[in-house]
């Protein structure tokens, strides 16, 4: 192919990826200042020295003490364009991040949120073994992995603007529980993991999975509280939804995440969770509506059995 055409194509790809509005939260910009286990200059207990908000009173994650929750009723969540499949995967040295084609923006509303929230990215936190890995815990119990589906309020221009407002972001948190069987919905994503084993590598992916297949079957059972980003710059701008029902994953699948590396190649990208933060005077709300089949995620297209219900 003519090298000029290649250049033009490359330029178009570059412009496109900027238009898509990558979410950075202060990472991926030049020198890495923070990490979890010595791979940056600051470990979690010292983040606040460099990032003031990390020392705030409304930080995340937290332990959810179910006895201390307040029952509440919100309208049903509704998910738009959640059939979209991620088209881009990245190991940024702190997490595995997936993005979609933003021309058809997935968005959520309802669930007690005011207004519409546009999808920004999906990323994961996981452990070096399955006794830990999630950021949030419920009654002291940690899970081997937690996925965050990050959305920003559509009235704000982008994530960078949204994080300056207390209602700027809505993050949906999905907890994972180990089962002997693979989670077949994760398989297409995992197939691309070996291409992003090194930090700061990324890939466009064609074989992927609809976002909604990653949600628990009952998305009307959850905890709600106001908190922060769990990574610097720790802005207190997040309306958290922590789904009560976990989804499943096998040990073999978790092992694939554990093979990823941080920016320091000798330090594996595992245990990339922030330690628990104080709840302080915050209230944690609890919503539980039984599954109504017509509203079940994937009911129409048969994503059954995804949630491991108790
Ligand atoms: C799991 O990993 C943590 C952190 O590396 C470690 O402290 C703990 O002992 C491990 N637990 C098991 C059961 O291997
Ligand atoms: C990478 O991590 C190893 C093991 O902790 C450490 O000895 C080494 O100094 C680190 N390298 C850099 C460039 O920070």
What profile does the largest beta sheet have? Answer: 13 strands, mixed
CATH topology: Carbonic Anhydrase II
Mean pLDDT: 87
> What's the oligomerization state?
single chain
- Hetero ligands: 2-acetamido-2-deoxy-beta-D-glucopyranose
Extract low-pLDDT stretches: 1-31, 298-310
Which helices and strands, and how do they pair?
Layout: H1 3-19, H2 47-50, E1 63-64, E2 69-71, E3 78-80, E4 88-91, E5 96-99, E6 107-109, E7 117-126, E8 137-138, E9 145-153, H3 159-162, E10 169-178, H4 187-190, E11 201-204, E12 221-227, E13 238-243, E14 247-249, H5 251-258, E15 284-288
Parallel strand pairs: 1-8, 2-15, 10-13, 10-14
Antiparallel strand pairs: 3-6, 4-5, 4-11, 5-7, 6-7, 7-9, 9-10, 12-13, 12-15
One 2-acetamido-2-deoxy-beta-D-glucopyranose is lined by residues 128-129, 131-132, 271.
How would you sum up this structure, described in words?
- The chain is α+β, with helices and mostly antiparallel strands and 310 residues long.
- The chain has one domain (50-295): Alpha carbonic anhydrase (Carbonic Anhydrase II), CATH 3.10.200.10.
- It has helices spanning 3-19, 47-50, 159-162, 187-190, 251-258; strands at 63-64, 69-71, 78-80, 88-91, 96-99, 107-109, 117-126, 137-138, 145-153, 169-178, 201-204, 221-227, 238-243, 247-249, 284-288.
- β4 (88-91) and β5 form a beta hairpin.
- The termini are far apart.
- It binds 2-acetamido-2-deoxy-beta-D-glucopyranose (2 copies).
- One 2-acetamido-2-deoxy-beta-D-glucopyranose binds next to loops.
């Amino acid at each position: 192919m003519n090298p000029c055409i290649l250049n033009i194509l490359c330029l178009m790809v570059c412009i496109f990826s900027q238009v898509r509005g990558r979410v950075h939260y202060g990472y991926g910009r030049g020198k890495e200042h923070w990490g979890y286990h010595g791979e940056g200059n600051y470990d979690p207990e010292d983040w606040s020295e460099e990032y003031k908000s990390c020392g705030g009173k409304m930080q995340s994650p937290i332990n959810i003490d179910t006895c201390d929750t307040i029952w509440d009723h919100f309208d049903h969540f509704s998910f738009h364009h959640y059939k979209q499949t991620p088209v881009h995967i990245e190991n940024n040295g702190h997490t595995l991040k997936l993005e979609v084609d933003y021309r058809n923006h997935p968005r959520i509303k309802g669930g007690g949120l005011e207004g519409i929230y546009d999808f920004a990215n999906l990323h994961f936190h996981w452990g070096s073994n399955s006794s830990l890995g999630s950021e949030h815990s419920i009654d002291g119990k940690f899970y081997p992995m937690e996925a965050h589906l990050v959305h920003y309020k559509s009235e704000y221009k982008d994530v960078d603007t949204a994080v300056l407002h207390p209602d700027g972001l809505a993050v949906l948190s999905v907890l994972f529980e180990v089962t002997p069987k693979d989670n077949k919905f994760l398989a297409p994503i995992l197939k691309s993991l070996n291409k992003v084993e090194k930090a700061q590598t990324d890939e466009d992916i064609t074989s992927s999975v609809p976002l909604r297949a990653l949600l628990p079957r009952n998305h009307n059972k959850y905890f709600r509280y106001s908190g922060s980003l769990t990574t610097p710059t720790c802005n207190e701008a997040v309306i958290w939804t922590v789904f009560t029902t976990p989804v499943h994953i096998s040990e073999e699948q978790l092992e694939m995440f554990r093979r990823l590396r941080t920016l320091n190649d000798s330090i594996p990208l595992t245990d990339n969770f922030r330690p628990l933060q104080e709840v302080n005077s915050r209230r944690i709300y609890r919503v539980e509506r039984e599954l109504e089949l017509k509203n079940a995620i994937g009911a129409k297209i048969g994503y059954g059995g995804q949630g491991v219900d108790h």
